[in-house]
Design a protein that fits this description.
With 77 residues, the chain is an all-alpha fold. Helix content is 97%, strand content 0%. It has one helix and no strands. It has one helix at 2-76. The protein is rod-shaped, with a radius of gyration of 33 Å. The chain starts with a helix and ends with a helix.
Length: 77
């Protein structure tokens, strides 16, 4: 009597349990990938903004240095 019950239980697990477990794992994996991609995009945007700020600052510094060079050249004359 126990043998058919175990067979039915095993069959129910294979038909219902395994697909539910596999589906849950796949769903978790997809959500994790989506979150990582979103986080990566946010970091890329922050890095881009930071690089743009650095670039603007360096351009201003270049203009100041050119102005100082001009002043020094005029004083030598």
């Amino acid at each position: 009597m126990e043998s058919p019950f175990i067979f039915v239980l095993a069959l129910a697990f294979i038909v219902v349990g395994l697909p539910v477990i596999c589906g849950s794992l796949l769903s978790y994996h997809k959500q994790k990938d989506k979150m990582n991609a979103t986080r990566g995009n946010e970091l890329d945007k922050e890095e881009t903004d930071m690089l743009n700020d650095l670039h603007k600052g360096l351009e201003r510094m270049e203009k100041r240095i050119e102005a100082l060079e001009t002043i020094l050249m005029e004083k030598r004359r």
